[in-house]
Amino acid sequence: MTKTHRSKAAFTVAVASGLVLGGVAAPAALAAPSADAVIAEVYGGGGNSGATLTNDFVELANHGAAATSVDGFSVQYLPGSAGPTSTWQVTPLTGSVAPGGRYLVAEGKGSGGTVALPAPDATGAIAMSATAGTIALVSGTTALTCKTAADCAADTRVKDLVGFGAATVREGSPTAAPSNTTSVARAASLADTDDNAADFTVGDPSPTNTKGETTGGGNPEPGTPAKIHEIQGTTRISPFKDKKVSDVTGVVTATRTFGSSRGFWLTDPNPDNDPRTSEGLFVFTGSTSPAVAVGDAVTATGTVREFYPDAPATSNYQSLTELSSAQWTVDSHGNALPAPTVLNPDTVPTTYAPSPGGNIEPLTLEPAKYALDFWESHESEVVSVTDARVVGPSNSFNELYVTSKPDQHESVRGGSVYLGYDQLNSGVMKVSSLIPFAQRPFPKLNVGDVLTGTTSGPVEYSNFGGYTLFASVLGTEKDNGLQAETTRKQRTGELAVATYNVENLAPGDAQAKYDRLGEAIVTHLATPDIVNLEEIQDNTGATDDGTVAADQTLQKFTDAIVAKGGPRYEWRSIDPVNDQDGGQPGGNIRVAFLFNPARVSFVDRPGGTSTSAVGVVREHGKTHLTASPGRVDPANEAWTSSRKPLAGEFVFKGRTVFVIANHFNSKGGDQPTHGRFQPPTRSSEVQRAKQATVLRGFVDSLLASDRSANIVVAGDLNDYPFSPAVQTLTAGGALKDLIASVPEAERYSYVFEGQSQVLDHILASTAPRGVDYDVVHINAEFADQASDHDPQVIRFRPGAGNPLQDGLYDLLDYLEQVFGH
To answer: Which helix (H) or strand (E) element contains residue 757?
Structure first.
């Protein structure tokens, strides 16, 4: 189970482009990317209903090293449908664009809106669509005639081109659709990949001219005077939502000068006496760095928005109250900053959120009672924490998680263990950095490490990870020396069975990943006799070309094990039906068995296919599978778009052991724990409950045939020990979830959003004797991971159902422990 994210703009692109790409039959032809001037932003909603700006605009930028002349150039517009009678409309340009600078082209003016554009560098009268169309930057002022993406790419006059919304003419795939109140803007890096969907995101319009001016140039309506605490209000939604406010005063406490969501945070140094109202506010300036400094006293005007990372009407997330389309004046410099809220172990409430059974946005905040209310009542204010222990390792997005409650469900290795739906660790918070990377690279820290000294900055809600401290002051890294664990070797009479999710393993992965996985099997897991693998991809990985075989993936893996000094494992698996088992599109992930033939035998029985169901029979007094390997009821609707369990029959020292490898459906689609709906709906549980019922039925059929059957059910069940699915598997004691046999501080195999939790399980029937179980922590707590999951291993002596034989077996095992092998 892999979680990804990022900035609010990045999230918008990921969602929106996913919707658009589904309708694109083939990529459009591409022209060479521009080396200097590019189209940076397009807005067609000016003057429309709900708009703040009065005019449409096109903004250019220069990502070259020298000024670029646009004399004799033009920007041209084609309607989105581009029918036979459509024509390109032309606005001539003059002047130049400085390196790293902007150039603003004003277009058609509507009857609505209240804020004028900054003084434009060129002016046209094109009435652009707010939702779909194409803008081209053209050498020359003669109207283009091309009506298809391929024809426009072949026209050498086209320097850059952007198709937005459902545009017929575009580079690659069109951008997501903007609206009357949103524009499409290129990332701050100005990268030009010739794929509009990848290069542009939807967000608030931020017109900027060559002088760097971003404020309106007319006499806009002044708006309602308001203090920050009045804007924030006593609920999650501002009482001034979508209204213009003025005379908003505060001191700049931090700035965000990189990325696509730039702006600054204001805090009013004269707070009210209401603990429910935040005194902080984020002023959003889009892709333009704000011309303010920390300590500036500012008076601002703008429109109050509630920003959601996706569609507000259907979002599962909370919003960020911000000031957009802002104008401001700096009244003075070098002012003292308001004191931060210091986070001590008892500052944040233990109870996580109110749980009315619905949307908590209208509820009056109770910051002394609920953690989520506490954070919301300090939204955009500066908070600080001292000697913060890391509970979620640094990730590729330069984030980590710390806790302000070091004693709250502390794991044995320094994390925060998640022990129940009502026991979320409320002290956990995400930390990102406002410090430019060139000034201080983001630290690479593991769970248990510490940011010593003070870490402080404004707090803002993020759809990925909840409330986030954006650090303008970042503590000093202290490495507490976390080491990867190593389990013991199984004894001669013990069978060792492990489970390991290897995170979308494909032949195209770097050899270094295979080497680390091989090292894990040989050294850290001490070469188990049987290994259940999850997320083995097909031979072409995520390329969706109809390939389903995974022999190359498994061969490369087993070769890596041998190269690390391990045995030559054999494997068994069943290829899935193409694109029917979920996971990364095209990857065809499946479960598989590795086994060491020098220690354990696999009983091969023909008949196991991707669509046929394995059964249980009893012949000559002995229970066996009808096919080995075989899939458990693969046609059952419980396994729709999900991996099917794989049952295998093994023999160890003359005793039969049934192993069932699993990878239940993911948690995708669940409402977030920190979202606006409380308690969150865990919709994915419905399918896992069905899967558990089917799997339990198969286990019961084995036990009905042989009540002393040695059964191991293992894999990534994508659910917790306290979940309905796992409770179904363990009901009545037929299977024991072995994670319950270790202390609470050790119950985790995965770390998500700073919560150490259990997704991977090994369950065993009552027949195995001398059971020894271990979660081997080698990945989830580390910034450098070979997989995002930790493996687990069970060692046991298979029971024979005969007390005399079992007693003799116990004696032999005891003698081995005393005298060695």
So the answer is: strand 755-757
pLDDT in tens, 614-644: 999 999 999 999 999 999 999 999 999 999 9
Q: Indicate left, alpha or beta for 95 from its phi (over 0: left) and psi (-120 to 50: alpha).
A: left
State both tokens at 306.
């509630």
Q: What is the pTM of this model?
A: 0.78
Beta strands of 506-632 (E only): which ranges?
A: 530-536, 570-572, 590-595, 601-602, 616-619, 622-625, 630-631
31 CB neighbour count, 10 Å cutoff: 17
Cα–Cα distance for residue pair 96/91, rounded to 1 Å? 15
Taking only the tens place, the pLDDT of each residue in 434-476 is 999 999 999 999 999 999 999 999 999 999 999 999 999 999 9
**Cα 149 → chain centroid:** 33
Distance (Å, whole) CA 3 – CA 582: 15
Q: What is the DSSP letter of 521?
A: I
Q: What is the mean pLDDT of the chain?
A: 92
Across 309-323, b (16+ Cβ under 10 Å) vs e yields bbeeeebbbbbbbbb
φ, ψ for residue 507 (rounded to 5)?
A: -60, -30
Residue 678 contacts residue 355 (beta carbons within 8 Å): yes
d(CA 214, CA 199): 22
Instruction: Give residue-wise pLDDT tens across range 10-30.
Output: 333 232 222 222 333 333 444
Residues 6+ apart with CB under 8 A from 131: 44, 80, 164, 165, 166, 177, 178, 179
**Which residues fall within 8 angstroms of residue 797, CB to CB, at 6 or more apart?**
493, 494, 495, 768, 769, 770, 809, 810, 813
SS3 633: coil
Q: Which residue has the tokens 């993911």?
A: 666
Exposed, middle or buried: residue 422 (CB in 10 Å: 0-12, 13-18, 19+)?
exposed
Question: Is residue 8's pLDDT more than 90?
Answer: no
Handedness of CA 294, 296, 299, 300 (dihedral sign): negative
**Could you give the CA distance from residue 788 to residue 771 in angstroms, rounded to a whole number?**
26
Which ranges of 673-797 would DSSP assign to H, the alpha helix?
685-705, 724-730
Beta strands in 337-427 (DSSP E): 341-342, 358-359, 382-392, 400-403
Biggest CA–CA distance in the chain, Å, is 97
Rounded to a whole number of angstroms, the distance between the first and last alpha carbons of the chain is 39
CA dist., res. 580 & res. 597, Å (int)? 31
Q: Check: CB of residue 402 under 8 Å from CB of residue 429.
A: yes
Supply the Cα-derived Rg of the chain in whole angstroms. 30
d(CA 659, CA 710): 8
Encode pLDDT of 119-159 as tens digits: 899 999 999 999 999 999 999 999 999 999 989 999 999 99
- Asked whether the beta carbons of 307 and 182 are under 8 A apart, the reply is no
